[in-house]
Amino acid sequence: MSRLPYWTPQEVTELLNILRNLAAEGHSIIFISHKLNEVMACTSRVVVMLDGRVVKSVPTADTTARDLARLMVGREVIFRLERQAVQQGAPVLRVSDLSVLDQRGLPALRGISFDVSGEILGSPGSRATVRQNSKWHSVG
User: How many folded domains does the chain comprise?
Assistant: First the structure.
């Protein structure tokens, strides 16, 4: 199974700059994405499809990300949900001073400590090896 590449914000910015420069030189570009902020940042016209049919074609300046989301799914989209604070209990996972070497024997993680108690812990990163190593060393 192939994985899509992870793009850092800096790489996305560079890609969008390249696309804008190509368009300024007279090239036509078809940019297919569900990431509406990127679509709004680099396009002059947006075509929204739903179930294989064109729903709307509109100049980007005449629409919003919220409008595009509604057209993409066929209903209003809630971007933010109001949630009540949750009382956290005792930790269900405690990791102390985790250090991991990668496949080459180089440090992938160094001195990582955290507690998890009724929450979702995210570990962002662009290197799959670091994410994979931390996952396996944390749970088993």
Answer: 2
Does one domain contain both 61 and 97?
A: no
Residue-wise pLDDT tens digits, 13-56 = 999 999 999 999 999 989 888 889 889 988 999 999 888 889 99
123 contacts 113 by C-beta, under 8 angstroms: no
How many C-beta neighbours within 10 Å does residue 46 have?
Answer: 19
Query: Nearest Cα to 29, choosing from 74, 6, 60?
Result: 60
14 with 54, same domain: the answer is: yes
- Decide: 72 and 63 in contact? Cβ < 8 Å: no
Q: Which residues contact 87 (CB under 8 A, 6 or more apart)?
A: none
In which domain, by residue range, is 132 found? 93-139
